[in-house]
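Changelog-linked ticket: cobalamin example.
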Amino acid sequence: MKAILVDASITACGFKSYNTGELMESSWIHHGLCSISAYAKKAGHEISLIDLRLLTGYEEFKTAIAKSKPGAVGLSMMSVDFDAVTKCAALIKQVDSSIKVVVGGPHPSIDPEEVSRNPDFDYVVLGEGEITFTDILNALEAGKPLERVLRGTPAELDKLPFADRELYGGHEAPILPELPVPFMTVIAARGCIYNCSFCQPAEKIIFGKGLRRRSAPSLLSELEMLRDKYGLKSLMIHDDCFTEDVEYVKEFCRGYTARGFKMPFVCQSRADIICRHEEIVKIMRDAGLYMFIIGFESGNQRILNFLRKGTKVEHNLKAAEICRKYGIKVWANYMLGIPGETKRETRDTVRMIKKIKPDHYSPAFFTPHPGSDLFTYCEKNGLSLIKSHEEYRRSPFGRKIKGIDYEFLNRALQDSMDPVSHSVFSKFGKFLVYGTAAFLKKTAPGRYLVEAVKKAVRREK
Ligand code: B12
């Protein structure tokens, strides 16, 4: 069957934002859609992609659907994308009401009731989509009836074909401008063993309890394919925490070197793991690790406990020291304005970040995300100030919850960053959707991002 997948992640970047060599987030591929495509193509279906970030607006989307005449369209929805996805579904039905509209991804998995209320969605898939989306296409082709809300069948990860990057043409902008291109993102794991209250149980709901990870040889074979096909020169591993199984990391690093890779890579880790297993930092550095992205989150122990982060403030400080010792750059994720956080507790975070002196600051004002326990907590206690799905963004702008002095938070944010980073940040920060100001500062001369920001400002006007 002819089917179209839709990447509707325009909430942050807007239309006409894809792969203009600018904000990296606006050029990254959607691994869920790429995996669904690879699986469905293998089963004989004809799959293509409409990436809203490439289009000028919804009119162009409508025209593309009318031109292509698919039997089905699959839309992926995070909570922030709710409006864009529902708009697309309505337009598809306007073009031809017989086109079957399938929706899946984090938000339908987390809030199937809200999504199912919209009659434009013929099928709502909860959880993983490769097998189930293909089953839907098979059933539609055979004229077999299907339930409207379907629980996705999880796949055995090593048996899945590699992500179909051709959907996007294979190019992604590097997370750091100094990384050599072609840069690409990969993902090896589904789910997360940790239980942070600002995130979980979302991932348990989407991927089930625990964590499944592709074997190291499977991941390494994909990297070899990317080197042969695209000339891969640097990469980022998207896993929520790539280092949670140190034996896996060691196997990956041995294989990485044995297969002739020296290219720099970036991945996420945790402060407690870095402290407990300094040996893997050295092993990873020797293999090519360039930067760790670390969720330090807070410099106050009561807040870290409230977040169920499972780390200590001392871990945060020591982990940064260890990274410095091995020459690993640090990208610091941290949050200000957590429910119940006092000004003194916020200042603890500022003090900690100043001590850490990260290479890249990635601050956020706490934002309640659907699917997390803190979202439910904010709803129950009437704390949320969020009025539309589009505001479910982790960003250091705007007012997110009651009881927080955001003027104070803005000053704390400024205080947490070095002056150059903050001056760039305050000028362009609104457009720096993933990273922040230090990013511009460090790029000599940071041209592409500056250009991107200017373009974003023009678009905004
Ligand atoms: C990589 C990543 C990103 C990347 C790339 C995003 C992308 N397009 O996939 C970037 C950095 C851009 C990003 C941004 C954000 N992200 Co993010 N991201 C992730 C991360 C770590 C991995 C995603 C991934 O590739 N997973 C693996 C693939 C295979 O899974 P998947 O994409 O979910 O797809 C599977 C199923 O969901 C389903 N499915 C998905 N789409 C469809 C469509 C159909 C038709 C069907 C049938 C099935 C289906 O089938 C897929 C295959 O099994 C996840 C956490 C995680 N571990 O999943 C968070 C996560 C998805 N992100 C999250 C959030 C909150 C954000 C941001 C809002 C953060 C922010 N800056 O404020 C932004 C929003 C960007 C936007 N849309 O405007 C939340 C979403 C929660 C929610 N309630 O929606 C997650 C779950 C993290 C978390 N636990 O909080 N993110």
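Closing comment: Example verified and attached. Confidence is low (pLDDT under 50) at residues 433-450. Residues 4 and 73 are 5 Å apart (CA to CA).
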